[in-house]
Amino acid sequence: MSTLDDHVDRYLNYLLVEKGLSRKTIEAYSRDISRYVTFLEDNRVTNVSEEDTPLILKHLIAMRDDGLSARSRARHLVSIRGFYRFLVQENILSSDPTRLIDLPKSGLKLPDVLTVEEIKLLLDAPPLEKPSGVRDAAMLELLYAAGLRVSELVHLKLQDINLEACFVRVFGKGSRERVVPIGLYAREKIEHYLETARPLLLKSTTSAYLFVARAGKPMTRQGFWKLLKRYALQAGLKKRLTPHSLRHSFASHLLEGGADLRAVQIMLGHVDISTTQIYTHVAREHLKNMHRKYHPRG
């Protein structure tokens, strides 16, 4: 095994053992880094160094010329950047050659983010006269209140929610645990659901899951997606919505309101703050709009 291959194996093992990333995520990192290693070998480079900045840029340009989108190139750069940072952390390199390379423009474009008014229309859409509508209202409110992934939402257990202290315990990617505040609106809707709708939905069965569908089983991600699309239609929303849109809106609205980027990173469960930084452009656009609207020379 070459020294370069050994570095890559050590990095992937670090992601698995110490970072606790899922195998699917590690496979994505591995594909990106393998492509970069192949590029180095094609250029007769047998190891990495602190002087690799021109090589990395050449690799990004080659991928662009091969037709890769800015989004794909940005993902590749994030993978390569993580690899070099690991080598610096392990004292294999003294500095990170990716530090001066910016992400390709439009590389991490977000889906549509809802305005606060649009969020209210969506959250008010479920019919509260039906047990399923009470459940759906609580699910939507919690998804937005805590910035959850839909997979995290549907797999929540009763023991994961603390209504007295107003927080939810979440097990995200790589089984990493985080605790997120949920706010009073979500608490009220969840309390109402637990007291009224959940017993009616369960009938004579029992379930460990917070939000139940048929026979006490958790709702599927696809099932929740269908509900979301129906309520978005009812609310008259024209934007292309996915369950992740509420997570994006959660992060963007916090940053617009002045929240600290590090705090948002923790609540989202991002390992690397560079992942959270994709939301800062939304906050910057908001500030520019406010300046244009209210400054006498905006």
Describe the structure.
The structure is a single chain. By secondary structure, this protein is mostly helical. It folds into two domains: 3-89, Tyrosine recombinase, N-terminal domain (DNA polymerase, domain 1, Orthogonal Bundle); 116-289, Orthogonal Bundle (hpI Integrase, Chain A). It has 13 helices and three strands; from the N terminus they run αααααααβββαααααα. The protein has helices at residues 3-17, 23-42, 53-65, 70-89, 116-123, 131-146, 150-154, 183-202, 221-234, 243-256, 261-268, 273-276, 280-294, and strands at residues 161-162, 167-171, 177-181. It has a three-stranded antiparallel beta sheet. β2 (167-171) and β3 form a beta hairpin. α2 (23-42) crosses α4 and α6 (131-146) crosses α10 (243-256). The radius of gyration is 22 Å and the shape is elongated. 32% of the residues are buried. The model has no long low-confidence stretch (mean pLDDT 85).
Keywords:
single chain; 298 residues; mainly alpha; DNA polymerase, domain 1; hpI Integrase, Chain A; 2 domains; 3-stranded antiparallel beta sheet; 13 helices; 3 strands
The ordered string of helix (H) and strand (E) elements is: HHHHHHHEEEHHHHHH
The CATH architecture designation of the largest domain is Orthogonal Bundle
Quaternary state of the chains: single chain
Count of strand segments: 3
State the CATH class of the largest domain: Mainly Alpha
